[in-house]
Every structure is written in C-alpha cells, then in structure tokens.
Design goal:
The complex is a heterodimer. Chain A is of the alpha/beta class. Chain A has 15 helices and eleven strands. Chain B has helices at residues 25-35, 76-88, 110-122, 135-143, 165-174, 188-197, 206-209, 214-233; strands at 4-6, 9-11, 15-18, 39-43, 65-69, 94-97, 126-131, 150-151, 180-182, 201-204. The chains are: A alpha/beta, B alpha/beta. Bound molecules: iron/sulfur cluster. Iron/sulfur cluster is lined by residues 84, 86, 88, 91, 93-94, 129-130, 198 of chain A. Chain B: 1-deoxy-D-xylulose 5-phosphate binds at residues 157, 183-184, 205-206.
C-alpha cells in the first residue's frame, strides 16, 4: 500500500491553482535548480513554463550529454499475440473487436527472432495482449528461452504479474519490464477500461514495484498521453518514477511518453497533446530525473523524433511492426495502432549518425 | 615523463580514456590516437563481438591495453562474472571493477568492490577498482590485491572536478599503490591538478567524449597530465599564508651575535 499512499499525497494537489500563482522567476529557478524537487517538476509542467521551452531545452541537453553522451539505444518490439480479455476504449486489440486473433508458436517466434536479429538489434521488447489463458506465464517463459539465443536483452510488456511470476521470468532471462498505467487518474482509468481484469487499478499500479522487488534490472513506466489532462498525467508519472528511483536505486527507471495513435476500435474524446506539450513533458522529465531513461516510440512522426534527439531521449524503437508476426509473416493481422515513423533500423542508424549521435544496438548482456 | 608501472607493465602515458558517450566509434578512435593513451576502458556489456561494424574493440588501437569494466554490476558476484566473461572473450586480464547499486548518482559500493577485488586478484587479474574515496577502504583494496586504486573526483559525468580533493590527497599520501583519479574531471586544468597532487594517472571520459572536439580535447588532456606530472616531480614551491616580512619581527634575536 505504500505506493498508493505516496501517490495519494500528490493526487489531490490542485494543479491549476498552484500554476496560477507561479511567476517567471519560479520557472527559472526550477530550471536551474541543482536538485529539482517534485514541486519544481510540477512548475516545469505549468503553462507559464511553456514560455521557457528553449531554456529548458538547453538545460535538458546539457544533462543528457553528461549522463548519456551522444548515444541513443535502438530496440524493437515483437508482438507475440493479440488475444486480449480486456475492453480498453483506446486499443484495437480489445476483446469485443472482431479482429483476426493470432498467437505465435515457438517456431514462428524463432523465425521472427532470426529476421530481427539479422538487422543487428540486440534488445527486444516482447508484447502480448492481456490474456492469461492464451499467453500464460509458461508461454512467455518458453518464448524467452527461444529469444535468448538471439538477443542480449529481453524486456516484456504483458499483463501485470505477481511478484513470484516476475521472479521466474527474471530467472530465465528477462531484464526489463514495460508497463504503462495508461491513466493515473482513477476516474478516467475506470471509464476507459470498460471491462476485464485491467479494471483493477492498484494491481496495475503496483506491478513495476513488484518487478523491482523481484530484482528486475529496469522498469519502464508511462501514461498514454491523450486520455486525460496531460499535465496531471505527466506529473503523476514523474511522481511514480521518482518513488521507484528512491526506493529501488539499483533499478534503472525509464519513462515513456506515448501519445494516442489512430487504431481500429472505438473513438473517444481525447485530450489533445500537441508537439510542444510533448516536448515540455520530455524536458521537464529530463530536468527532474536526470538519469532516467526516456523512450520515444514510432508512434511519433519521424521529423519530430529526429528533433527530440539531444533533448533527453535515450531509447528509440526502430524497424517496428505492431502486428503479430509482422516481421516475417506474409499473413497479416490487425496492428495494435498505426505507427508513424516507419523507418528501417538502417535508416534510424543513419539519422542518428547524421545528427552526431551513436546508435547503440547493444548495451546489455546476460551474465 | 617518468613511467608508471601497473601489473608489471610500464606505461608512458598517465592518461586513461573511457569509450562511452562518443558520437561514433571513429571519433573515439581518433581521440585515443591523438592523446597517446595506452589504457582504454570499455563497458563489457556493450561489446558486440558479432558485429564488425559495431564491435567497439575493433576501434581500439591494438597497442592499447584493454581495461574492460564491470559496469552494470550491482554486487560483487555480478562483477566477478563479468570479469571472467571478459577474460573468456579475449579482453586480457586487466579489469576495472565498477559495482554500482545506485542509479541516481552512480556512486560505487566500496564494500562489494573490495569483495570482488579479492576474488579476482586471487584469480590472477590485474584489478583496478573504482571507489568512493576512503582511506581505509583504499588500504583494504590494496591488501586484497588491487594493482591500483581509482577514487572518484566527483560523480561520473558531472565534470565538476576534484570535489573530493582532501580525501584523495590523503589516499595519495598514505596508500602504497598507484592512485588514479577516476570520474568527475571535467577540464584539462583539473587533470593537471590531480597530477600535481601526486595522482599516478587520471581516467577521463565524459569531458572528452562530449566536448565540441574530442580529438583536440584528448590532446589537451594529455598535455595537461604531462604538465601536472612534471610539476609534481619538480616539487611545487612551498606556499605560505603569511607574508614574509622584509624586516622580521624576531630579527633582533640574532643581532647580539654580530
Ligand atoms: S490496451 Fe492492452 S489490455 Fe487494453 S485492449 Fe489493448 S491489448 Fe488489451
């Protein structure tokens, strides 16, 4: 319960009345603070800080250079299955959507692994829809055993597990966990998660911490930007990341900043997150959490991704297909969402090099 | 310059270089070449032997000593495993122990570092442990077999200089092994300062890799290290806080003898 209590403290802050009292001086102080507090972070997310993006970018750039240098890690996601028991209003894999369902068998996983590793990528993120029945932990373990032969680092993005299940996966070779809370606001959470086990807010919220207790190397968290007021969601994501960093200093904490993309399924009213808003979130995150990883996926268009290099991004996906078996199979399934940056791994490498950055394909190995 | 001997090997250059954070392997190679360093450290976990194009070892001049580090290790056991792997991969028997279980500041864990050093020194490795400056821990590292000790000047990547100066100086004065200042050195003048203090060598990475011109910066560091070492050997003139009066107040004491 500790995390819930901790988040509770910040949940009820009236952000907009705080923002209304802020002055330009407060923003400048937060930008140059040696060790920004959570409240400085909130200041950096304020509307008035939006007028200081250049100053924030300068600081974020310096911090990024010091901590990560001129390098960006490339990885790719691999969709193992699109079976899902949940009904999320923002995703095309949801259980009531009549899409073609598919789950890769071990031979198919091996074929995909060969295709992907031939591109030189050594870090892989495996994803499933949320179905314990179709993709039980045993299935994921089996998949990891196959993938280990081809990759140096394996991360998972699957339904929230129990601590001992994370421990089993870590034991076989998983070193990273990605799990998005999607929305930190409980009311909105309840609304967009219409049915299914994903409705259990706190079981999901505490999943990264369970993985930390099970001694995972890295956790990657995030809110799906667009489902709620982005300032509130970015703030709570930062609070969550800071909590994990302080409590589990041995774990590498990363934050993703996914924005909602077009998908097959329902449409709701989205809170528009403009490019400049996304940039503000990234800069504020970099200043507040100087050593956290920041991931920008191919949901974003290539021009924007290119310009974010140097501002705080440490990891980017490349050569992405969000379809099950999308790397090798000719028989196509529905994609989870439309990707925007469709460049190949070679093209991504070239882009980074041309910006004076080193594409890193491997920075981890199992020992 | 007088040469430094570590693990039975004589080194002409007292500047050690890190390989992280460069814009590409080529600029790293050129920086190494321009400063004449002989010891190059790299994170073993980043070495990709399968890839000719991305295998960092291919870009380290053949006459340099490889100093693989155990970056990513969170305890002694992991550090030992990485060290053994490095040897098995053909990286030689030098190893820089880095045991870090604090991702926020990247500060080393001296206790686990001592444990790993002991195990690896017994196995015949030339062990160079990275540590938080502490006299007792430094002595223990030497006792268990460290070939040199590498205290930090300030946290990795900060470029803040030798903020731990007093502690590092005590280690230099008291420990009977080379002391190599690792991490925090941001400017050539700070590298010179470490050398003037009597450090045996310095390890620099971020300050070179993230500078506007890594090749020139590497060169600047090598000159600064050399200057600092010469100054140390020449013995710096004494500094005094009191002005030397031309007519001393106690001058009369000798007057009766005249
Ligand atoms: S977001 Fe995840 S849980 Fe929700 S419908 Fe899509 S795949 Fe299922």
């Amino acid at each position: 319960m500790e995390l819930l209590n901790y988040m509770e403290k910040y949940k009820n802050i009236d952000l907009y009345s705080y923002f209304s009292q802020l002055t330009k001086e407060d923003v400048k102080r937060a930008i140059s603070s040696r060790k920004p507090s959570i409240i400085d972070y909130l200041t950096l997310l304020s509307p008035i800080a939006g007028d200081f993006l250049e100053e924030m970018a300068q600081r974020a750039h310096t911090i990024s250079l010091q901590n990560f240098g001129k390098s960006v890690l490339l990885y790719t996601p691999l969709y193992l299955s699109n079976y899902c028991v949940n009904l999320c209003s923002y995703c095309s894999f949801h259980s009531r959507n009549k899409i073609k369902r598919k789950k890769l068998n071990m031979d198919e996983i091996e074929t995909e692994a060969k295709e992907i590793s031939a591109l030189g990528l050594k870090h892989i993120l495996i994803l499933t829809g949320e179905s314990r029945k179709e993709t039980p932990v045993e299935y994921i373990i089996e998949a990891v055993e196959v993938l280990k032969k081809y990759f140096d680092s394996i991360s998972i993005e699957v339904y929230p597990l129990k601590e001992d299940e994370y421990a089993r996966l870590i034991e076989v070779g998983v070193d990273g966990l990605t799990i998005y809370q999607e929305v930190y606001d409980e009311k909105v959470y309840n609304k967009v998660h219409i049915a299914g086990p994903k409705k259990e807010y706190s079981f999901r919220l505490e999943a990264p911490e369970r993985a930390c207790r099970a001694k995972i190397r890295g956790v990657n968290i995030g809110a799906l930007l667009g489902l709620n007021d982005w300032r509130k969601e970015a703030f709570m994501t930062g609070v969550h990341a800071d909590y994990l960093q302080n409590k589990y200093p041995e774990v590498e904490v990363s934050v993703s900043l996914p924005r909602i993309r077009p998908h097959v399924g329902m449409v709701s009213n989205y809170d528009v997150v403009e490019d400049k808003n996304l940039v503000q979130i990234m800069l504020a995150t970099r200043i507040f959490l100087p050593r956290a990883g920041i991931t920008i996926s191919t949901r974003e268009r290539k021009e924007l991704r290119d310009n974010l290099v140097g501002l705080g991004v440490t990891k980017m996906s490349a050569g992405v297909s969000t379809e099950v078996g999308g790397h090798s199979s000719t028989e196509k399934t529905e994609s989870q969402f439309d990707i925007s940056d469709t460049r190949t791994v070679a093209e991504m490498k070239q882009m980074l090099l041309s910006k004076g950055y080193q594409p890193i394909l491997k920075d981890w190995m199992h020992i | 310059m007088d040469n430094l001997i570590i693990g039975g090997i004589e080194l002409k250059s007292r500047l050690f270089i890190g390989t992280g954070k460069y814009p590409n392997h080529k600029s790293m190679y050129e920086a190494i070449e321009s400063c004449g360093t002989q010891v190059v450290t790299m994170a073993l976990r980043r070495v990709d032997l399968d890839s000719k194009e991305d295998n960092i070892i291919e870009f380290i001049p053949k006459d340099c000593i490889l100093l693989p580090n155990t970056s990513g290790a969170r305890n002694a056991e992991e550090a030992v495993r990485i060290a053994r792997l490095a040897k098995a991969m053909g990286c030689g028997n030098w190893i820089k122990i880095e045991v870090i279980s604090d991702n926020k500041y990247l500060l080393p864990d001296n206790y686990e570092t001592i444990k790993a050093t002991e195990i690896l020194a017994k196995e015949g490795f030339i062990v160079l442990p990275y540590m938080s400056p502490d006299l007792m821990a430094g002595k223990m590292l030497v006792d268990v077999g460290a070939a040199a000790v590498m205290p930090l000047g300030s946290p990795i990547g900060t470029n803040r200089g030798i903020r731990t100066k007093e502690l590092v100086q005590i280690m230099i004065d008291e420990i009977n092994a080379p002391i190599i200042v690792d991490a925090g050195i941001g400017r050539p003048s700070e590298a010179a300062e470490a050398m003037e203090m009597g450090a045996a060598a310095v390890l620099v990475n971020t300050a070179i890799a993230t500078s506007g011109n890594p090749i020139q910066m590497a060169k600047a560091f090598s000159l600064a290290v050399e200057a600092g070492r010469i100054a140390y050997n020449a013995k710096l003139g004494a500094t005094g806080s009191l002005a030397k009066a031309s007519s001393p107040l106690t001058g009369f004491l000798g007057e009766g003898d005249k």
